Amino acid sequence: MTIWTPTSLRAITGGSWLRRPASTGDEPLVESLSTDTRGIKPGEAFLALRGDRFDAHDFLDSAATAGAALLIIDRADAIPESLLKATTGPAILRVTDSRRALGQLAAAHRKTLEGTKVIAVVGSNGKTTTTKLIDSILKTRLRGTASPKSFNNDVGVPLTLLAAKRTDQYVVCEVGSNHPGETAILGRIVQPDIVVVTSIGRDHMEFFGSLAVVAREHASIFSDLRPNGLVIVPAEETALADYLKPVPNVITVGRDTNSDLRVTSMAHTPSGLRFAVNDRWNIELPLVGEHNALNALAAIAVAKRLGIDEPSITKALAAAAPIDMRLNRRTIRGVDLLIDCYNSNPDSLAVALRTFAAIHSDPARRVIILGDMLEMGSHSDAVHLEAMQLVAHVCPARLIALVGPAFTKIAHLFQRAIPQSKIIAVESLDAHAAAQIGAELRPADAALLKGSRGIRLEQVIAALENAPSSASPSPLVPSA
Predict the structure, then answer these.
(1) Does 393 lie in the same domain as 353?
(2) Sheet strands (E) in 431-472
(3) For a surface tag, which of 83, 115, 347, 355 has the fewest beta carbons within 10 Å of its beta carbon?
(4) Confidence band of 270 (pLDDT split at 50, 70, 90)
C-alpha cells in the first residue's frame, strides 16, 4: 500500500488536479516529498508552504526546474504562466491548505507503517537530546530514522514521518508544543507505539499559564497510543499520575527508589557523566548534567522494549554526540564554555546553573552570561527574580553578564544579592556588545551561556572566536 498514487493523493488531501499526471491512478506518481526547493530531488513532490515571512509558491519554477514530478499548492494564482502553458512538466494538485495537506499525507503514511515502531518524545525540556540518544542506540541494531534537529511542530513532525520507509523498524518523532492543543493534533498524526515524556516544566508559560496545563498538554498524546503501547515517564512527575491510569504499560525512570529504571550513582568525569542503572549496570555518557542521565534512562527503556541488548546500549551511549547549543562544552582561547542557548525557561536554567556549579567549583573562575527567558508572559518578573536568587545561592561567579530587558531591569538587584560579583547588563545583543562581553573573558575562565534562542547569545561565542589576540574592546560599564 502506498499513499503516492494519483488516486490516493487526491483522496487524502481532497485536492483537485490543475495538471493531471501522466501515470494512471494506481501507479505511484512519486515516492517522497520535499518542502524546500534547495534540497529537492528529481522525481519528488514539492509541497508549497506559506508562513509569516515567506511563501514557497514563489519558487514553483525552481521546483519544476529541479525535476519535481508533482507540485502541491493552495494558491492557483501563484503558478507561473510559463509552467501552465508548457506541454510537459510536473503534475499540479491544488489543495485547500497545503500545511493541512502535509499533516493529512503524514497521517495516511503512518497507517502504512505497520512494521515500524513509532516513538514520540514529548516534554518541556530535553526532547531533542532524548530523541538523539534513542536514535543513537536503536540504529546500532535496527533500521530507522529520527527527527532531524528540532523538527517538532506541525511541519517537522509530518516531514519526519513521511521520511520513514515501510521497511524501517523504527522512527523517532520529537513532538513539541507552544500552545494548548498542539500536542493532541500531532498525536493524531503520529499514533505512537511508545511515548517518552522527558519533563513537565514551566516552558511557554505565556500561553500555558500553569504547570497543570503543561501536564495536560503533554499527556494528551496518551489518547493516541496504539494498543499495548508503552509510556515512559520520570517517576517524580506526579502531575501525570491521573493521565497514566488508562495507559496499559508504564515504565518510570528517575532517582526515586520506586523507579523502574534508577540512577543509583552519578559523577561528572572529564569526558562527561558516569552513572549506574539499578546498582548493577555502569554507563559512560559524553554529556553533562544529571538530567542527561535521566534522558539516557528513557532511551534505555525504549531500547530494551525493542530488544536491544545491554552491551549494545552501553557502547552506543558511550559514543553519543553532544548536541549543539544544548549544554555542550567547547574551549575557545583558553575559556571553558558550557553553551546552552537554544532555549531557556526557569527549570532548564536551574539545571544549567547546577550543572555548571558541579563541573566548576571555583566561583573565582566562573563567568555567567544569562539571556532573558522568553514567552513567560505575566510570570516573567517572578521567574527572572527566581533566577537571580538561584545564581546567588547555587552558582555565584566573578562576573555575571545579563542580556535582555527582563534581566537588565533587575541588574541592580543582582548586584545587591551578589555583591562580590561584577554585574554588567545590556538590553539587546549586537556584534559590538557581544565583543565587549567576550573581552571580559580570560584564559582559564569557565563560562556558562544560557538564554532563549531569540536573545542570540551565540554572538558571544562568535566574538570570542573572531577576536584578534591583541584586541581588547573597551569593557562594558558595570550596572549601577
Answers:
(1) yes
(2) 446-450
(3) 115
(4) confident
Q: Is the pTM of this model over 0.85?
A: yes
pLDDT given for residue 209 in this prediction: 87
347 shares a domain with 271: no
CB half-sphere exposure, 226, CA atoms < 13 A: 16
Q: 319-337 pLDDT, tens per residue? A: 998 888 889 999 999 999 9
Is the separation of the CB atoms in 447 and 336 below 8 Å?
A: yes
Asked, for residue 104, whether it belongs to a domain, the answer is no
The torsion defined by the Cα of 347, 349, 355 and 357, in degrees rounded to 10, comes to -120
Strand 33-34 and strand 335-340: pairing? Answer: unpaired
Model confidence pLDDT, tens digit, residues 343-373 = 899 999 999 999 999 999 999 999 999 999 9
**Same domain (yes/no): 199, 314:** yes
User: Long-range contact list for 148-154, CB < 8 A, 24+ apart?
Assistant: 150/174, 150/176, 150/342, 152/127, 152/128, 152/176, 153/182, 153/186, 154/99, 154/102, 154/103, 154/182, 154/185, 154/186
Helix or strand or coil: residue 105?
helix
DSSP run (H or E) holding 460: helix 458-466
Any domain includes 11? yes
Give domain status of residue 102, yes or no: no
- Please state, in angstroms and rounded to a whole number, the distance separating the CA atoms of residues 130 and 298: 7
Domain membership of residue 479 (yes or no) is: no
Total length of the chain? 480
Whether the Cβ atoms of residue 354 and residue 395 lie closer than 8 Å to each other = yes
Residue 288 has pLDDT above 90, yes or no: yes
- Dihedral, CA of residue 350, residue 427, residue 441 and residue 382, to nearest 10: -20
- Cell for 119? 516513538
Would you state the pLDDT for residue 479? 52
